[in-house]
Description:
Helix content of chain B: 10-25%
Strand content of chain A: 5-15%
Oligomer: heterodimer
Shape of chain B: globular
Radius of gyration of chain A: 40 Å
Number of strands of chain B: 23
Distance between the termini of chain A: 75 Å
Shape of chain A: extended
Number of strands of chain A: 15
Largest interface: A-B, 110 and 107 residues
Strand content of chain B: 35-45%
Amino acid sequence: xxxxxxxxxxxxxxxxxxxxxxxxxxxxxxxxxxxxxxxxxxxxxxxxxxxxxxxxxxxxxxxxxxxxxxxxxxxxxxxxxxxxxxxxxxxxxxxxxxxxxxxxxxxxxxxxxxxxxxxxxxxxxxxxxxxxxxxxxxxxxxxxxxxxxxxxxxxxxxxxxxxxxxxxxxxxxxxxxxxxxxxxxxxxxxxxxxxxxxxxxxxxxxxxxxxxxxxxxxxxxxxxxxxxxxxxxxxxxxxxxxxxxxxxxxxxxxxxxxxxxxxxxxxxxxxxxxxxxxxxxxxxxxxxxxxxxxxxxxxxxxxxxxxxxxxxxxxxxxxxxxxxxxxxxxxxxxxxxxxxxxxxxxxxxxxxxxxxxxxxxxxxxxxxxxxxxxxxxxxxxxxxxxxxxxxxxxxxxxxxxxxxxxxxxxxxxxxxxxxxxxxxxxxxxxxxxxxxxxxxxxxxxxxxxxxxxxxxxxxxxxxxxxxxxxxxxxxxxxxxxxxxxxxxxxxxxxxxxxxxxxxxxxxxxxxxxxxxxxxxxxxxxxxxxxxxxxxxxxxxxxxxxxxxxxxxxxxxxxxxxxxxxxxxxxxxxxxxxxxxxxxxxxxxxxxxxxxxxxxxxxxxxxxxxxxxxxxxxxxxxxxxxxxxxxxxxxxxxxxxxxxxxxxxxxxxxxxxxxxxxxxxxxxxxxxxxxxxxxxxxxxxxxxxxxxxxxxxxxxxxxxxxxxxxxxxxxxxxxxxxxxxxxxxxxxxxxxxxxxxxxxxxxxxxxxxxxxxxxxxxxxxxxxxxxxxxxxxxxxxxxxxxxxxxxxxxxxxxxxxxxxxxxxxxxxxxxxxxxxxxxxxxxxxxxxxxxxxxxxxxxxxxxxxxxxxxxxxxxxxxxxxxxxxxxxxxxxxxxxxxxxxxxxxxxxxxxxxxxxxxxxxxxxxxxxxxxxxxxxxxxxxxxxxxxxxxxxxxxxxxxxxxxxxxxxxxxxxxxxxxxxxxxxxxxxxxxxxxxxxxxxxxxxxxxxxxxxxxxxxxxxxxxxxxxxxxxxxxxxxxxxxxxxxxxxxxxxxxxxxxxxxxxxxxxxxxxxxx
Amino acid sequence: xxxxxxxxxxxxxxxxxxxxxxxxxxxxxxxxxxxxxxxxxxxxxxxxxxxxxxxxxxxxxxxxxxxxxxxxxxxxxxxxxxxxxxxxxxxxxxxxxxxxxxxxxxxxxxxxxxxxxxxxxxxxxxxxxxxxxxxxxxxxxxxxxxxxxxxxxxxxxxxxxxxxxxxxxxxxxxxxxxxxxxxxxxxxxxxxxxxxxxxxxxxxxxxxxxxxxxxxxxxxxxxxxxxxxxxxxxxxxxxxxxxxxxxxxxxxxxxxxxxxxxxxxxxxxxxxxxxxxxxxxxxxxxxxxxxxxxxxxxxxxxxxxxxxxxxxxxxxxxxxxxxxxxxxxxxxxxxxxxxxxxxxxxxxxxxxxxxxxxxxxxxxxxxxxxxxxxxxxxxxxxxxxxxxxxxxxxxxxxxxxxxxxxxxxxxxxxxxxx
Lengths: 1057, 418
């Protein structure tokens, strides 16, 4: 149908008017069906002509009308050829509308759609990122299986695009391609893996979405990106946040041990307070060691907290469910406030949030108790909201608040909304059973309701009272009598049936009334509802058994009526009862037990929350809302008994060429990592991390216990197995090096890209996290001996000899880089934070032994670059500006500190007083020597102060507050790696030796771009010293300059260029 | 995620459909209509409906149903929140979110939906970004476009999309630079029969209208920030500064937006500015009842209470009402049984009241419960919690902006039980 016929048939106004107007000119329509038909044809002709005209405005008009047709769900597919021609239109609006059309109809007209592909392929190369992105969007949306390879190619290219927007679209395209052709999964996973590494916040949400859709089980892809995702989370757009939080919740449940154990354990202990000590001891031993939360686990919980303040309800809910599922129970309390806030939102949000609160409030009442009143019902709430609120109120009811609640319920019972009133009565029943103090009060209240005017209310009360009485074996003769009277007035079948049942059950307690009731019922039997009839039969049978004298005839009369009832259920029941209770020759052995059968003690019904069984679904999910497992629902796994290796999350800072091979994968599958595990199991993690790649960064195994024992054992093991470890890793990396046509100096370390051409060897690199640095600290503490050796080496400035070379270092291909051989390959893009692995610690310790007598003298800096960094911008500092630079002077405050000079400027128009350093937030191990407070700084004045920071040899940021009299500003300093170095003086020979020894240490590399003609040693040197604080080693060879420096605490690095 | 979207008007016509993946037949909406029928009341249509092959998540806003079709597990709030964002965007673009407006601008609607979702996942939802991609329709622009042939569609990626402040457009220029803040507080309360407060709390928002050139960096501080118990922020606000200094520091979006919404801590006693004296009674076995309400000021901090409206949902058995107001005017809708009394201002000398008779359906039992009164009012130049803005500073730009803060207190869900 075209829009023309629409106009004829529907006569609707609005958007149609324009079309109608146009039609009047285009068709002189005769009446009748034929006319309609012809104008139909003509109409499309008209659109086709417009599309073929060479005026953009005509085309645009035509396209707008076609989009209007699509929007209404009308078929416009026959215009496909005419539309598709315009896909290459210069006019961006036409183009967009054509895209809309294509996406809608390409699936139906695949052959024709192929005509447009080349246009998109061209557009994919367009310099405008918006055009590239939209081309990719349309190309991936047209769902034509034949172009799968083209899509795959386009996605691969786009995933490496410079524009994050295009990469984001690539992530979306992954899902589209996957749904079109699941065969591509493997290749797509590769792209996902690559995009997961992306540091742009724009991409993060989309790629995690793709991950969830394509390969949610490949949790291993997340490990390396876990910390990055946690840290980026706040800056990701809100929709991405939701997806990432849900994914991380699942991740956390597989990777960390339960934080709830401790709580439970404590409770256990309390309970068992009076048990004998022995038993207690056993228990504690059972629990092995006290629970300490994995720092990564903590990181996630900490970084999601600010998002509770999001304006987006979905984000708040996502954080709430994350806290609910993975945080220690004591911390989950903070989410209740935010969830209650969401209740101010529109009804749909309220509905979902209340559902989730209902589930939560069953398990942990305490969380929402302070907000009890927020769940009070208003008469204007929709019924579904009212019932949910009621549900929550019931869950929250306890001895303390029940009286207030019951008062509130009284109002609800009178509500005009009878459905809601009935629900309230049910609720009162539930409260009465749960809280024994109020059972009687509730019962009395309910009995009062029996005289209510509204039948639904009365009926509901009867049903609830029946349940309550059943629960209480106590005599309630009065109530039963009262209810028996009600039978005359009440008409609701359920209520009548309930009363009859109740009387039947208690027929011995009301011996006078029961037969009378039966008499009345026998009279009205035929007109009763089926439900009631069944209960009449039951009542008859029970009375027959207890009081056959009075009721024998009545019962038989009823049984006769039942025998000819229309309903087969009733006929069935009648037959059954007759056989059971009326003794005759045919009756079997069962009739002896008839009384036992009919008057057995029946278990009381359990009044439970309808939300009880929802808790096995993850909160906030569709499945939870529907209480059915929705397709694609990913089960939240139980906490693992033992946490999987936490070191997998460590990020290699600098990825050497070799890390581009799938070593990551190999390590997962390769059981050969047990290679080193002759040592205890405890060490497994550290070993495996050292095995997966030499430059693996620090594992937290050392951190967990922080114990010296562990350090020692890791030392032992690396000493024991170091030679094979070394050689193995040597081979591995040699192969890699060859592959990359690079002759790297054989280093156990990392290469970093900076703007100087150099290889840095570091004996020790910084930890990428607090955990790492703390492990460094602990290692150096335990090795205080070696530490002091270093100190002495520094101070005496005496060059010694290395006495021990027990580590076969020289046997390896310790090759320095020849310039000739140096290929200007682009070193892989790297992350800025280096990390330290336990194997490095071990190496360090080995090093300590071997270089015990060698002393290194600190040299003077060759060059001090004047580059300053902004510490505090004047705009954010309310006129106070601060810049800092590294003077490359040995720090006067301590050997391990780096000196930093801070220049403070007052750009405001008033005096700034009392400038000082406020609260410091330093990672573990870092130290800072602050400058003396500055009393005042005149307008336009500036002052330079120096301070010392011990960065623990890492590029971690030091954050602290710069305070004035009135304000505090949060500022951070992150040192470039080159500034952490200190030059030392030594001979070339020593340099070589040291270099050999340091093989395998962290390595930082960068490329210097220089024109061949001015490629002079001095120029290279200049470039190198510009970025790193190194010295020059006199060299025999012309084109090799070596610089060497001593790291502050204990590390030794070399630079060669 | 979101597969398709159907827009349905009150009479059950599907007047717009949009598919982001394969086409889903309109017949899927039948399940929705079924649920709608069952619910009787539009308010009671369940937001999430399960059908054999799909899940329908819907919102009801401005008399329109936005029904989205979902195929796999997704957080329902995600979809609900997004649909509301769509409705807000329409409101923003066309001035109203109505069937007529959407039908009139169907092409722009389509372009917007295309930009907002890609493959069912939100792509751009910030209004400032969308406005750069697709210009909102104005009469002037359509005239210009028809003459010059230029289009409504931007051809470069909005700068906001890539920057870390996606909410702000680049190159904003105003001749008059102004920044206005409205502190709006609403009192939610339930007052019981005897006039005592069952429940009361204050919810507030700060809405901003910022028309500043360039990239201003604002910081707004309060005299008494401790009052704010629970706050939710526009993404532009720097959370860290709030945590450490209780200062709202932000680079604002251009135009109107909600800066924060907050709840005042529950320790503070809430001042209830009005009281209602009421006596509503229905006589047994008679077809009439009496209705008498009087409103008076209470704890109004010396300000005038204005814009008072009383809405009462009368019981079903009420046929008609014969009332005389001493002030303002009243209407009673015999179909919906809603009584609305537009009072206006309270003058303490003469308290407004509404008295009269209620006609009941004869023979029907008298209503069980008296209806509750919903009250609306407004107090200008007062934030009932006592919240006060201390100062607004601007950094990063040279000019001096006009600044203004306005306080208003309103009744939120203010209900008096009778």
